[in-house]
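User: Show me a protein chain along with its predicted structure.
Assistant: Here is one chain, sequence first, then structure tokens.
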Amino acid sequence: MAEVEPGTGPSEFDFRIGGHERFGVAFQGVSYTYDARYYDIVPGQRLVYSYEMYAGAARISVSVATIEFAEAESGTRLTWTEQGAYLDGFEGAEAPRLREGGTSEMLDGLAKYLA
């Protein structure tokens, strides 16, 4: 698998209700941008946000995500619910699988960090 080049695009982070997050990476010669807005932040309970993904100037997807946290016997249970619209056939039928794979990698990294 080709490596993502982190820090190769714009970056900003304003973590508050109404705040904005934006970052970019390069992957296989294409610049990708993640552009998010936070709608609900309840510490220790819930985070709701929406985001758009761009490949160059083309918007390729729009998603809304809810992350919920609940006490569990062994620590904290994290529930991630996301609905995405994949636009103009970008990445075709593989788009949901690729997005799920990226999210899984991110959560695996979080688990290693917290262990």
